[in-house]
Specification:
The structure is a single chain. The protein is mostly helical and 79 residues long. The chain has a domain of 45 residues. 76% of the residues lie in helices and 0% in strands. The protein has three helices and no strands. The chain starts with a helix and ends in a 6-residue tail after the last helix.
Length: 79
């Protein structure tokens, strides 16, 4: 059985892979490590991670909309 921290770590890994934001996350982790986990000292890497995640989500939503539009325009008309 996995512990809660192992489960969380696995979930983070999956999200990073899905959204492609590993580099931004690692920058944030490095900053937090350098500044004793002080979020206020790490606003720039935090913004980079947030922007990466949001861009990824918007891109995925756009792809889903495009795929839906493509599938409806390619439907065969009834005779």
């Amino acid at each position: 059985m996995r512990t809660n921290s192992e489960s969380t770590s696995c979930d983070i890994e999956q999200v990073l892979e899905l959204h492609g934001c590993r580099e931004a996350y690692e920058r944030l982790e490095a900053c937090l490590g350098e500044h004793d986990r002080d979020w206020s000292a790490c606003q720039e890497p935090l913004k980079l991670l947030r922007d990466c995640y949001e861009n990824s989500r918007q891109g995925a939503a756009g792809q889903r909309s495009s795929a839906l539009a493509d599938s409806t325009t390619k439907a065969k008309p009834r005779s």
